[in-house]
Each structure stands twice: as structure tokens, then as C-alpha cells.
Specification:
- It is a single chain.
- The protein is of the alpha/beta class.
- It has a single domain, classed as Ribonuclease H-like superfamily/Ribonuclease H (Nucleotidyltransferase, domain 5, 2-Layer Sandwich).
- About 40% of the residues lie in helices and about 15% in strands.
- It contains 9 helices and 5 strands, in the order H-E-E-E-H-H-H-E-H-E-H-H-H-H.
- It has a 5-stranded mixed beta sheet with strand order 3-2-1-4-5.
- Helix 5 links the parallel strand 4 and strand 5.
- Helix 8 packs across helix 9.
- It is globular and about 50 Å long.
- The two termini are about 30 Å apart.
- The relative contact order is 0.20.
Length: about 200
């Protein structure tokens, strides 16, 4: 039902990357949170070609709520390498790519904040596509739970009958596994929305 509301997903290129972050918490009076893990999944011809995860040492403490989501303690994170030292590797994946993020309004500003904070240079990209925002019309039409940001990855995973990779890990989130889950959901929405809608022209 309502396949026409998924039209935007059918227009995505066959090659793109998905980015996901896990952080120290939510934005607060002290600014944006720090990245703890950053996952990137490379998609070529609509298939997962590679997935990587960068564990980065935060300067801010990890909140209890964030730790319950991704399972990383402050003690563990203290052993990670700095964001600065890993940026050149991350940037190579981003360069000239279309970047898909589920909840881009959260992850992308945090990434840009880190780049600016450490005096780094952002790679040129094709653009950023928020799969969460793009899914709002279909999710609302299907009466799915939907916040102002859009339907969650878990909601779409269940609604589309996609395999839940996180279920195998006890529900723990991570940059790598969440980026892979986003690809599965994205491609399921592409397939579901790939319907030809006839247009009648008079005259």
C-alpha cells in the first residue's frame, strides 16, 4: 500500500554509503555530544560491498542512557584512538559520495562539529540523504509510530519484514551494525516502492 509515497527511494543511485554514529549522549547546554563509534557501509550496485567501524575516544563522558544503547563504557572508550588521528581514513570513504543517514539532522551536524573542532577539512560530498525524513509520508500513511524526526529504524525493520541484525547482538546499537541495518531497510523500501504509476494524458 501507498507505494507511490516511497518514490524518492526508487530514485536513489545504485552506489552510495551509509553513515551512522553512536555518541556520548544528546545535545545539551554544553553543546553537541562526542562520537564514540562511527560506522560506514559502502553500497555498490545496491549490494553491501564493505562495512567499517571507527572507535573514537570522546572528550565528554558517556551518559548512562547512551551506554545502555551502545554498551560502551567510559573505561573502554578511553582506550580508543582520537577522532583526529582517524579522520584521514574516514574522509576517504566520504569523498564524492552520496551519504545516507537515518536521522541525518543528528549525526551530520555532530560530524561537522568534530571536523571544525579539530581544524580538519571536510571532504567534498555529493549530498546527504536522510532516510528517516524521507520515510515520514509512507510511515504516517501506514499508521506506523513516527516522531517529528520520522520512523525509527526498528519501526521500519519490523514493518518491512527485514532481518533485524541487532537482535542477534542483544539489541545493542553500533555504528557498523546500524549502518548495515539502514542499507537493508533502504533497499527494502526501494524494492517496495518500485512500482510504475500510470499517468493519463488527455488530448
Amino acid at each position: 500500500m501507498y507505494k507511490e509515497l516511497l518514490w524518492v527511494f526508487t530514485q536513489l543511485p545504485d552506489d552510495y554509503i551509509v553513515l551512522d554514529t553512536e555518541t556520548t549522549g544528546l545535545p545539551d547546554e554544553n553543546g553537541l555530544p562526542d562520537i564514540v563509534t562511527l560506522g560506514i557501509t559502502v553500497v555498490r550496485q545496491r549490494e553491501i560491498a564493505k562495512s567499517v567501524e571507527f572507535e573514537t575516544r570522546p572528550k565528554k563522558p558517556i551518559s548512562e542512557e547512551a551506554q545502555s544503547i551502545h554498551g560502551i563504557t567510559n573505561e573502554q572508550a578511553a582506550e580508543f584512538e582520537s577522532f583526529y588521528s582517524q579522520w584521514h581514513q574516514i574522509a576517504k570513504y566520504l569523498k564524492d559520495q552520496l551519504i545516507v543517514i537515518h536521522n541525518a539532522s543528528f549525526d551530520w551536524p555532530i560530524l561537522l562539529d568534530h571536523v571544525a573542532r579539530y581544524g580538519l577539512t571536510m571532504s567534498p560530498v555529493q549530498g546527504v540523504f536522510c532516510s528517516q525524513k524521507a520515510a515520514i509520508p509512507w510511515a504516517q500513511a501506514m499508521d506506523l509510530p513516527c516522531s517529528h524526526r520520522g520512523p525509527s529504524l526498528d519501526t521500519l525493520t519490523k514493518a518491512l519484514g527485514v532481518e533485524d541484525l541487532r537482535a542477534k547482538e542483544g539489541g545493542i546499537h553500533g555504528g557498523k551494525i546500524d549502518s548495515r541495518q539502514t542499507v537493508r531497510v533502504l533497499e527494502a523500501m526501494r524494492r517496495f516502492g518500485n512500482v510504475h504509476i500510470g499517468v493519463r494524458v488527455n488530448g
